[in-house]
Amino acid sequence: MYNSQLPTDGSHAPKGTTMNSVVFEQGTERHGNERIRFLLKSFGLRTSLIRLKVIDALLVAAESERSLGVRGVHTQLLDLDIPLSFLSVREVLKRLCSEGVITLNPDKSYSLHPQALATLHGE
Question: Which structural domain, as residue segments, surrounds residue 102?
Fold first, then answer.
């Protein structure tokens, strides 16, 4: 995974940054996404950053009782400084839908499939 805080030219890390703090930050992020990783694996899908972020956006929207369409998911990701194209988000949503992880609602919004929700909650 690319980390913009680490140099790519072979030089040392910036002053004030230790490798321990970088590893800790990555470990914290991984732990937060572990249930989404398990969900994707249970549906036979590989984990990718865009899939993690799209599913997380749908979970956050569901928790606040909002529904999101393609544009809503894309906007939410842009607000989080995740630079993904609209087309990429749309393709990921279509793929997750075809695999049964999410469903397309009649109002063109997306939500997690009940089986996917049960998997996330350990049922």
Answer: 19-120
